[in-house]
Design the sequence.
């Protein structure tokens, strides 16, 4: 079953940002593993938990061998009890540790929502700052493809986005996967990192040693004058390829903005790009209604209305559960082609 | 032993008098937050917390005033919090159900029934990972024992032999729902659990001396690294689920049931024993009552004088910067 093992076989788009990597290229899983290994080395308060983190597969490779390197007390498998184990992470964080709780299927986060939404997200606020901080990281991977169907592939960022008190991260590159995870572990607040299995196909420049990509700081992956495409995770890569092709084929110059974190959101970067192009395609792997792309559209309308020269276009998955069959999946998921169509349509308006 | 009994009595009486004062003044409407009073349940808070040291931690629930006070939480900050004032323990952001006093190991209480159970388990995990000679305690009711998270947490604590003491205050009622309508027999009391992994005891929760002895056994076990304990303490909620007596809806329980349990009052019971043994002379008792009353007067005065929270701080505590 190919989806249980993903080998990095594709290079990330060349964003021209690689000087710091000195040419070293790592796969996404290796980048994540390096971040976890560094965090465990640099801070004795860090521990890593999750169902299967000490499996031979090691969470798609992201945790492979860490339990041997750091011992079973700091890297451990969990019972199938997401509610309690999330609370365990909250309690351990309150008592001075820095837990990292990994899930290889995001859907089980619904079982963890009580502790994430009712407890972790509210603990500082609810006690007027008098309670200890809750520095925990929950990492979950969107499991798309190979018939994963409705309960093994959901994109839950729209739900987490809605909850004040949680930071929410979605990396798109191997470089950011490492730097954002290290920043999330170093953050004194609860952080949810939603990764994408498509990212795991990629190799890209990853500097050695620790570095931190600040939460809440996006980046322009490709400058352009006609349309802004803004989003997160692997759709940024799709948008980049779409923009390159459109520039080559039709002379349309799309600017691609990788916002990296959903909360806090780099609104300034989004609005600055909008000021240049006047048009926005908001892309997200999640559902359309009340989702992440809807929030980007709302920011554009609320704070960037004067720049807008055309209605905002959302490219998202439809408001449906995910189908299993590959022909149905093809109709369900969005990617380069849908983004290309949206840019083209908007550029003509 | 006599010292312990007197100490238990002082803590219990203080909790009782604080609750009574809140009850008496609640309809004045200066405390604009739902209060869940623990009259009738004082022996459990006192018995357990007196078995703990300052470095040990307590997780509590919506009915947490007694736990907070027994663990050493600041009374003025409690009463100010009930008034939602800036001088409250949570700065007016928490209200009656979200109490905190980190200086005494009270790291914050949850009003999601059962929410504190896994958090206490995680605090126990942190104590283990940090090789700290500390114990994590969580108080919860029979309503929380309906939640699956209790069993998930017990399993994990047993698996890792964590220094956690789970204290179930079985007060028979979840809001207006009786226990027999929610639970099938004794299923909460895990008689089937491996006694090597879990020390479990079911005891009269209105007997402070008994609770204290069981808590000491559990705490000693936790400190030795042997693992968690579950203390199921039978007790009764004399007042309603929330608010004061006059606000309790009528008709969901028998008056005779309340009267039966009122006759088993844990505070009166310990007092009787102390008096009978000549450990509580009338003069000493009067002095104790006067000191508590004065302290409560001061706390209410402090709360009244405390300013309201500054609205400019509304978003200040969302994230820890």
Sequence:
């Amino acid at each position: 079953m190919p989806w249980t093992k993903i080998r990095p076989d594709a290079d990330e788009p060349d964003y021209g940002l690689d000087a710091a990597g000195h040419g070293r290229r790592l796969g996404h899983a290796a980048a994540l593993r390096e971040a976890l290994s560094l965090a465990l080395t640099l801070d004795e308060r860090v521990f890593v938990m999750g169902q299967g983190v000490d499996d031979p597969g090691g969470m798609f490779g992201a945790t492979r061998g860490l339990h041997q390197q750091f011992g079973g007390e700091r890297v451990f498998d969990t019972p199938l009890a997401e509610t309690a184990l999330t609370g365990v992470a909250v309690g351990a964080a309150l008592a001075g540790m820095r837990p990292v709780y990994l899930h290889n299927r995001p859907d089980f986060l619904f079982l963890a929502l009580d502790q994430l939404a009712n407890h972790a997200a509210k603990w500082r606020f609810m006690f007027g700052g008098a309670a200890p901080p809750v520095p925990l990281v929950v990492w979950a991977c969107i499991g798309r493809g190979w018939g994963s169907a409705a309960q093994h592939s959901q994109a839950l960022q729209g739900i987490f986005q809605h909850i004040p008190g949680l930071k929410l991260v979605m990396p798109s590159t191997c470089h950011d996967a490492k730097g954002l995870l290290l920043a999330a572990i170093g953050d004194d607040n609860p952080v949810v990192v939603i990764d994408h299995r498509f990212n795991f196909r990629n190799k890209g420049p990853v500097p050695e040693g620790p570095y931190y990509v600040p939460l809440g700081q996006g980046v322009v992956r490709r400058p352009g004058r006609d349309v802004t495409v803004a989003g997160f995770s692997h759709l940024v890569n799709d948008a980049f390829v779409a923009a390159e092709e459109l520039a080559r084929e039709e002379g349309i110059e799309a600017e691609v903005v990788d916002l990296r974190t959903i909360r806090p959101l780099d609104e300034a970067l989004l609005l600055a790009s909008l000021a240049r192009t006047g048009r926005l395609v908001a892309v997200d792997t999640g559902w359309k209604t009340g989702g992440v792309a809807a929030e980007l559209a709302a920011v554009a309308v609320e704070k960037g209305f004067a720049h807008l020269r055309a209605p905002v276009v959302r490219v998202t998955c439809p408001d449906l559960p995910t189908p299993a069959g590959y022909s149905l999946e093809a109709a369900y998921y969005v990617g380069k082609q849908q983004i290309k169509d949206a840019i083209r349509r908007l550029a003509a308006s | 032993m006599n010292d312990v009994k007197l100490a238990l009595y002082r803590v219990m009486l203080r909790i009782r008098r604080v609750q009574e004062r809140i009850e008496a003044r609640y309809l004045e409407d200066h405390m604009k937050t739902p209060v869940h009073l623990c009259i009738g349940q004082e022996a459990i808070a006192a018995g357990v917390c007196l078995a703990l040291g300052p470095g040990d931690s307590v997780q509590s629930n919506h009915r947490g005033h007694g736990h907070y006070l027994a663990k050493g939480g600041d009374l003025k900050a409690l009463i100010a919090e009930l008034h939602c004032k800036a001088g409250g323990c949570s700065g007016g952001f928490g209200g009656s159900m979200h109490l905190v006093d980190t200086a005494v190991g009270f790291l914050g209480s949850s009003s999601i029934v059962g929410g504190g159970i896994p958090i206490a388990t995680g605090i126990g995990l942190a104590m283990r990972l940090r090789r700290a000679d500390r114990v994590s305690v969580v108080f919860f009711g029979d309503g929380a024992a309906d939640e699956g998270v209790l069993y998930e947490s017990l399993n994990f604590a047993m698996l890792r032999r964590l220094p956690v003491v789970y204290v179930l205050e079985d007060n028979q009622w979840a809001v207006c729902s009786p226990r027999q309508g929610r639970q099938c027999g004794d299923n909460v009391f895990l008689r089937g659990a491996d006694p090597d992994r879990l020390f479990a005891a079911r005891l009269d929760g209105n007997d402070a001396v008994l609770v204290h002895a069981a808590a000491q056994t559990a705490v000693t076990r936790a400190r030795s690294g042997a693992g968690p304990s579950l203390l199921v303490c039978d007790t009764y909620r004399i007042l309603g689920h929330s608010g004061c007596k006059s606000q309790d809806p009528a008709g969901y329980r028998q008056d005779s049931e309340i009267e039966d349990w009122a006759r088993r009052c844990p505070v009166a019971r310990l007092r009787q024993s102390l008096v009978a043994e000549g450990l509580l002379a009338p003069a000493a008792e009067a002095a104790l009552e006067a000191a508590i009353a004065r302290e409560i007067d001061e706390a209410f005065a402090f709360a009244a004088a405390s300013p309201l929270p500054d609205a400019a701080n509304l978003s200040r505590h969302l994230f820890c910067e």
In short: Chain B touches chain A through 46 residues (CB under 8 Å).
